[in-house]
Amino acid sequence: MALPLPGAEWSSKDKPHQIGVRARSFVPSFTKTNNASSMTNDQILPKPSVDVLRKMSDEALITAFQSGDHDVYRFLVERHQERIRNLLFSIFHDSDFIDDLAQEVFIKAYQALPRFRFEASFYTWLYRIAVNKSRDELRKKKLRRFFSFQTLDEGIEQELNMRLSVPPENRDTQELVALGLQTLPEKFRTAVVLKDIDGLSYEEIAEVMQCELGTVKSRISRARSMLRKALKPLLEEVET
Amino acid sequence: MKKMNEQKMDHLLSQYVDGRLSEIEVQKVESFLALDTSARQRVKELRRLKDLLTSKRKLTPDIGFWTRFAVALEEQKKDEHSLLPFPRKFIPAMTVMAAAVVVVVGTLIIQNRMQFIQYFSEKSQAVREVYEKNVLQGQLLPLFSKVDKDRALQFSLFGTLALDDKSKTELRVDEQSKKGYRIEVGKDSKNKAKPMTFDHFLSEVKPTSEQKHLIDSLLELTGRRIESSVLIGENNTMAIAPDLPNLNRMMVTNIAACLEPNQRVQFERLLEANDAPYTVTAQSVPARKGDRIFQNIPQSPRDNRFFIITPDTMMYSQLHIDFDSLRRHMEENVVMFELRREAMLKRMIAKEFQHAPRNVPWPQPVQSFGNEEFFSVEINVPAEEIEQQQMRVIIQPRIRKQILQTASPSHSIQVRAWRDTASEGLTRQSQE
Q1: Using CB atoms, which residue from B18, B48, B53 is nearest to A238?
Q2: On chain B, which terminus has fewer CB atoms closer than 10 Å, C or N?
Q3: Cross-chain residue pair B20–A217, CB shorter than 8 Å
Q4: Burial profile B64-94: b = 16 or more Cβ within 10 angstroms, e = fewer
C-alpha cells in the first residue's frame, strides 16, 4: 500500500468506499475488505479527513492500523518523531546519527505494532523500543572502540574539563550539559534523560527501561550525583 | 541522619528534589537541611542541574522526517518481501516448524544411521560393480596388452604386431599409397615380418646412452598407444582409433629424429635390410632434443575418438576410458582377461556383418566383404586430414609395387578380420 506524502490529502473521492468508519463510536473499523456492496450504506462512512485523523488518539490510530489501514501510521510517526529524535539526541549527542536511528526505531515499531496489546501507552512502548535500540547502538560503539583501542570516554571527560576551565561568561551551558551526559554509563544516562529532559515519571521510566521502581530511583540519584560532580563549576555559578 | 553515608544522602535528596518523599520524610529532610550547609548546597546544585537538564536545547522540528521515513519503510518492505516467501507474521511459526523438521529429520537420521550408511555403501558398491563389469571386466578390452619394447619396435618399423606368441593373428598397418593407410587384423604368413629385437637395433645403430634412454621411452609410449588404440568388446564390437596408422610412421620418424646423421645411415641400412616399409630421407638433419620429440606425440587416441564397429552398424564416437585403471585391473587378472579376449575375437570374426554403415558423419566409411570368409571395413580419410596428421618429413614410405598396383584412388583405412580360425578350419584368403 502506497504511503501518502505530506500534504497529500485523503478524500473519499480518491478512494471511494475502501475504508468504512462506523458512525456510532467514530472509531474507524478499517476492515480490509474492499467489497462495499457487502455493507449497507448506513454502516459505511467516508474515510475521515487528515485533520480528523490527526486529532485521533494513539489508541484509535493503532486500532485502525491493526485493522489493516497502515496509512495511519504516518500520524503516529508525525506525533512522536520529535520526542524520539530528542531522546536519541540526548543519549548520543550526534545529530547526524540520530536521524537513521530514529528511522530504525519507527520501522521496528511499524513491524511490532500489529502485536501491540494496549497494556501500556504507545509513547512508553515507543520509548522502550528507542531505549533498546540506543542500548544496542551503544554496545556496538563500545565494541568498535574496544577493537580500535580508543578511549572515547576519557576524551569526553578531558574535553568537558577543558571547557569548564574557561571563564563562566564564555561557557556554553548546553554543550557542557550534553558533554556531562556523555560521561555517564548508558543505564544512568538513559534514566536521567527520561526523567529530567523528557519528563517521564518514575513509573513510566521503570516501564520503559523494564526494571524495578527502586532501581530507577537509584539510577537517577546516581546519575545526578555523577553529573553534579562532573559539572561542579557550572553548578556553583548559582552561588556566585 | 548525620550518620547517613553520601550515597544514601544523594538518593534521599534526589527524591526530595523530585517531590517523591512523604510528608514525614520531607519534614525530616528539611530539618536536616536547616542544620547542614553542605546538604543545602547539594540541594541547590541538584535543582540547578535539574533546571539545566529540563531546559536542554531541543532539536528543531524535522518536517522532512516522514518523507524520508516513508521511503526507508518502503525499501524495508521490499527487502522483506524479496527475502521471505511468506508473510512476516508467520516468521515465528515457520521458525518453529523448521526447527521441528530439523529435529525430526536429525532424530530419524541418527536412529537409522546404520541403514543410511549401508544404503550409501551399497550404492557406491553398485557403481563400482557396474564400472568393473562394463569397462574393466570385459565390455571393452585392449586387443593387445603387455606390448614390450621388442614388439613395439617391430610394430614401429614394420607395422606388424602379433596378437601373442602362439596365435598367428596379427595387427598390420601398411602404407597403402603415398597418403593412404591400411590396418589389418588377421592371419598372414606371407607378409610376416622378420623378427626384430631391441638388442639387434642397438647393435646396428649404436645409439649413445642418452639416445638409448630416449628410444626406450618412445617404445614404451608406442606400446601404451597400441594398447589403447585397438579395443575389442563383449558384444562383437571392435573399436579402433583412426590415428593408429600414423603411430608407426610417427615413431620411426621420432627414432630417426633423435639419432645423429651417421647413426641415421645405419638405421636406414637396417630398415632396408629388413624390407621395412619406410626409408629415411633427411639424413643430414641434426638430432633433436628429447623434450621436443615428446611434445609432438599425443598420449592417447585423438579426442578419445574411435571407430566403433558392430555387426549392425559403425560409429565414429568418443569413448572415455581410464586406461591406467584398466591396465592395472588386467594385470591383476591376466589369465581371465586372456581367455575372455580370445573368446571375444573368435565370436567377432564368426559374426555376420552388415554392409551399410550408419551414423558416421566423418570419415565416410565403406564397409565391404571380400567373400563369405572374412569381413573387411574400409574407411575413407580426406586427404587434408592425412596431411594434418603427417609428421615432419624425415621418413618416407618405401612404396611397394604390388601395393601401388592395388592402391585405391581414395585414401582409406581398412580393418580386416579373417574368419579362418583354426577351429573352424576355413581357408584364409588374402586381399592381395
Answers
A1: B48
A2: C
A3: yes
A4: ebbeebbeebeebbeeeeeeeeeeeeeeeee
C-alpha to C-alpha distance for B304 and B300, rounded to whole angstroms: 7
| Cβ-based burial of B364 (10 A; exposed 0-12, middle 13-18, buried ≥19) | middle
Number of domains in chain B: 2
Same domain, A25 and A116: yes
State ipTM: 0.76
The pLDDT tens digits of the residues spanning A85-136 come to 999 998 888 877 888 899 999 999 999 999 888 888 898 999 999 999 999 9
Do B20 and A202 count as a contact with CB atoms less than 8 A apart? yes
Quick check: B83 contacting A, CB < 8 Å? no
Pairing between strand B237-240 and B181-187?
A: unpaired
CA distance B186 to B416: 7
What residues make up the domain containing B26? 6-50
The domain total for chain A is 2
A71 within domain boundaries: yes
B30 and B174 in a single domain? The answer is no
B chain contacts of residue A235, beta-carbon cutoff 8 Å: 44-45, 48-49
Shortest CA distance from A230: residue in chain B: B49
User: Contacts of residue B52 in chain A, CB cutoff 8 Å?
Assistant: 173, 177, 231, 234
Which of the listed residues A139, A161, A180 is the one where a domain comes to its end?
A: A139
CATH of the domain at A107: 1.10.1740.10
pTM over 0.80: no
pLDDT, tens only, B371-404: 333 444 555 554 444 444 443 434 555 544 333 3
Look at B69 and A106 and tell me if their CB atoms are within 8 Å.
yes
